[in-house]
Amino acid sequence: MVRLISAFIIILFLVSACSNESGDKKILEKIAGKDYSKIIEIPTDSNGNVDTTKMARIRFDESVFDFDTILKGDIVQKNMIFTNTGVRELYILQANASCGCTVTRYPKDPVAPGEQDTVLLTFDSKGQNGVNNKKVTIYTNTFPAEKVLQIKGFVKEK
Question: Residue 74 is part of a domain; what is its CATH number?
Answer without folding.
Answer: 2.60.40.10
